[in-house]
C-alpha cells in the first residue's frame, strides 16, 4: 500500500526584516511571489502531496488577490495560522489524516530546496518516522559564554533546514503538548517527547529568505537554474 503524502507550508512572515510593507512570502522572486515558487516545487514532485497552506488570517485576502493577479490555480487547502509558528503548524496538522500518511512541514520562504532533498526526507521518514535536512557549517564557530566566547568544533554542529517530514500520527501526537520557548522547529517538539531525530543531507541553496540580501541571493540562484 502506498503512503499518502502531505505538505504543511507555513507562511507567517511580516516583512519587517525586509524593510517592506509586503509580507516576505509575497515579495516577488523572478517574476512571482516567493510563496508560489515554494508551492509549485512541491506540486512538481512525481508523487504530489496534498498541500495545506497556513497563512495569517489578515493575509488571506491578499493571497487570494495575488492568485488572481498571477493566474495561480494550484490545488491546495488554505487555513488560518495562530499567533506563533507552533500554533500555525498545529492548525495545519489538524487537517492532515492519521492513517498511513507522511507530512512535510516547510517554511513558505524556502523556495530553493531541491526535489532530491524533499524525496529523501519523505523516504527516510517512511522508514524511520522522522527526517530533517541538515547541512554542515563552512564558517568557524564560536560558543558564547556570558560576555565572552570560545572556539567550538564546527564538526559538532549541524544547521537545520526544512522540510521536516514525519509520520502523521507521530507529529500530530507530539503537537498535543503545551508550547514551550525552546520549540524552535518541529524536530525540537518531537525530540521533547523522547523521539530520536534522523537527519538527511540538505542542499546549501535551501536558504530561508528573510532579508533583502537573501532575496538577492535567491534571485541569482533561481536564474542560474534556468540557464
What is the ordering of alpha helices and beta strands? EEEHEHEHEHEEEEEHHEH
Name of the level-1 CATH class: Alpha Beta
Q: Give a quick account of the main beta sheet: strands, pairing sense, barrel closure.
A: 8 strands, mixed
Question: Poorly predicted ranges (pLDDT <50, ≥5 residues)?
Answer: none
- Average the pLDDT over all residues and give the rounded result: 94
Helices and strands: which structural class?
Answer: alpha/beta
Q: Indicate the CATH architecture.
A: Alpha-Beta Complex
Characterise the protein shown here.
- The chain has a single domain (4-225), classed as Spore Coat Polysaccharide Biosynthesis Protein SpsA, Chain A, CATH 3.90.550.
- The protein contains seven helices and twelve strands.
- A hairpin with a 2-residue loop joins strand 2 and strand 3 (32-33).
- It starts with a strand and ends with a helix.
- 31% of the residues lie in helices and 23% in strands.
- The protein is globular and about 50 Å long.
- The model has no long low-confidence stretch (mean pLDDT 94).
- With 227 residues, the chain is of the alpha/beta class.
- Strands 1, 4, 5, 6, 7, 10, 11 and 12 form an eight-stranded mixed beta sheet that branches. A two-stranded antiparallel ribbon has the order 2-3.
Detail the topology: elements first, then pairings.
Blueprint: E1 4-10, E2 28-29, E3 32-33, H1 34-43, E4 50-55, H2 60-69, E5 77-80, H3 85-93, E6 101-107, H4 115-128, E7 130-135, E8 141-145, E9 148-152, E10 159-160, E11 164-167, H5 168-174, H6 186-191, E12 199-201, H7 212-225
Parallel strand pairs: 1-4, 1-6, 4-5, 7-12
Antiparallel strand pairs: 2-3, 6-11, 7-10, 7-11, 8-9
Amino acid at each position: 500500500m502506498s503512503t499518502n503524502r502531505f505538505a504543511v507550508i507555513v507562511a507567517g512572515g511580516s516583512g519587517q526584516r525586509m524593510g517592506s510593507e509586503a509580507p516576505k512570502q509575497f515579495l516577488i522572486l523572478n517574476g512571482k511571489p516567493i510563496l508560489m515558487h515554494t508551492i509549485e516545487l512541491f506540486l512538481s514532485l512525481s508523487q504530489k502531496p496534498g498541500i495545506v497552506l497556513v497563512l495569517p488570517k489578515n493575509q488571506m485576502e491578499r493571497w487570494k488577490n495575488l492568485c488572481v493577479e498571477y493566474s495561480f490555480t494550484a490545488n491546495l487547502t488554505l487555513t488560518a495560522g495562530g499567533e506563533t509558528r507552533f500554533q500555525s503548524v498545529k492548525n495545519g496538522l489538524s487537517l492532515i489524516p492519521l492513517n498511513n500518511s507522511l507530512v512535510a512541514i516547510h517554511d513558505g520562504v524556502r523556495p530553493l530546496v531541491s526535489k532530491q532533498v524533499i524525496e529523501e526526507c519523505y523516504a527516510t521518514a517512511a522508514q524511520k518516522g522522522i527526517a530533517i535536512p541538515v547541512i554542515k557549517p563552512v564558517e568557524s564557530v564560536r560558543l558564547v559564554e556570558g560576555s565572552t566566547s570560545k572556539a567550538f568544533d564546527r564538526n559538532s554542529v549541524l544547521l537545520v533546514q526544512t522540510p521536516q517530514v514525519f509520520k502523521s500520527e507521530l507529529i500530530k501526537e507530539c503537537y498535543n503538548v503545551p508550547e514551550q520557548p525552546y520549540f524552535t522547529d518541529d524536530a525540537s517538539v518531537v525530540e521533547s517527547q523522547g523521539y530520536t531525530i534522523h537527519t538527511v543531507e540538505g542542499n546549501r541553496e535551501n536558504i530561508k529568505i528573510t532579508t533583502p540580501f537573501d532575496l538577492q541571493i535567491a534571485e541569482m540562484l533561481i536564474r542560474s537554474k534556468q540557464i
